[in-house]
C-alpha cells in the first residue's frame, strides 16, 4: 500500500444494541481498523494485444497492436500505454476525445461502432465491440491482475439482521 493511516471512529448506539453500551459522541474508541489509502498507480500487468483482443466474445480489431499498461475512460487522465475507452455519453460520445487521449499517451481505443467512426482519425488501433462498458470491465480485470479473484465474497440474505450480520462479518 502507498500509505497506511489509522482511523479513529466515534461509535454511538442505544443501550443494549449488539450488547454495546451507549457511547457519547465526544468519546472515541480505539482504532477499529486500518484504512489503506489507494495508490495513484495500481499494480498493472502489461497485456499483449492478441491476449487482450482474445478476451472479448466478439469484436473487430486490428491484427497487431501495442501492449496495454493501463485503462481509462477519461481522456484527461490518460497515461502513456493506456487503452482509452470511448463510451457513448449523455451529451457527447467519449470517442470524440480519442485524439486528445492519444496526444496524452493512449496507444489504442476501445469503443462501439459509432465511436469507431469518431476515433478513426486518432491514428491508433481500435477495438470495436457491441458493449464497450462490459468490454471495459473485462479489459480492466485483465490489466489490473483480476483483483476480484483474491476477494472473499459473502452473501447475506433474510428479512432481519442483514446490516448487523454484515457489520459483524
Protein model, in words:
Helix 3 links the parallel strand 6 and strand 7. The protein has helices at 49-54, 98-103, 113-119, 132-143, 162-168; strands at residues 3-7, 33-37, 60-61, 70-72, 82-85, 108-111, 126-128. By secondary structure, the protein is of the alpha/beta class. It has a five-stranded mixed β-sheet. The protein has a two-stranded antiparallel sheet with strand order 1-2. Helix content is 22%, strand content 15%. This is UDP-N-acetylmuramoylalanyl-D-glutamate--2, 6-diaminopimelate ligase. Its EC number is 6.3.2.13. InterPro entries: Mur-like_cat_sf, Mur_ligase_N, MurE/MurF_N.
Task: Please tell me what the overall shape is.
Answer: elongated
Tell me the total number of β-strands.
Answer: 7
Based on helices, strands and strand pairing, what is the structural class?
Answer: alpha/beta
Rg, rounded, reads: 22 Å
Biggest sheet: strand arrangement:
3-7-6-5-4
Report strand %. 15-25%
Question: In CATH, what is the class of the domain at 70-124?
Answer: Alpha Beta
**CATH homologous superfamily assignment of the domain at 70-124:** MurE/MurF, N-terminal domain
Order of helices and strands: EEHEEEHEHEHH
Pfam family, one: Mur_ligase
GO molecular function, one term: ATP binding
EC number: 6.3.2.13
Protein name: UDP-N-acetylmuramoylalanyl-D-glutamate--2, 6-diaminopimelate ligase
Amino acid at each position: 500500500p502507498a500509505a497506511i493511516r489509522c482511523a479513529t471512529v466515534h461509535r454511538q448506539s442505544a443501550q443494549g444494541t449488539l450488547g454495546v453500551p451507549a457511547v457519547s459522541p465526544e468519546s472515541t474508541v480505539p482504532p477499529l481498523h486500518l484504512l489503506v489509502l489507494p495508490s495513484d498507480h495500481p499494480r498493472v500487468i502489461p497485456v499483449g494485444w492478441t491476449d487482450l483482443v482474445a478476451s472479448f466474445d466478439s469484436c473487430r480489431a486490428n491484427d497487431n497492436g501495442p501492449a496495454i499498461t493501463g485503462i481509462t475512460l477519461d481522456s484527461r487522465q490518460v497515461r502513456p500505454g493506456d487503452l482509452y475507452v470511448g463510451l457513448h455519453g449523455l451529451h457527447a460520445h467519449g470517442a470524440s476525445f480519442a485524439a486528445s487521449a492519444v496526444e496524452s499517451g493512449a496507444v489504442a481505443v476501445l469503443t462501439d461502432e459509432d465511436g469507431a467512426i469518431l476515433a478513426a482519425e486518432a491514428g491508433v488501433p481500435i477495438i470495436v465491440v457491441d458493449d464497450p462498458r462490459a468490454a471495459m470491465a473485462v479489459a480492466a480485470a485483465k490489466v489490473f491482475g483480476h483483483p476480484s479473484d483474491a476477494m472473499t465474497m459473502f452473501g447475506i440474505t433474510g428479512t432481519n439482521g442483514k446490516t448487523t450480520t454484515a457489520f459483524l462479518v
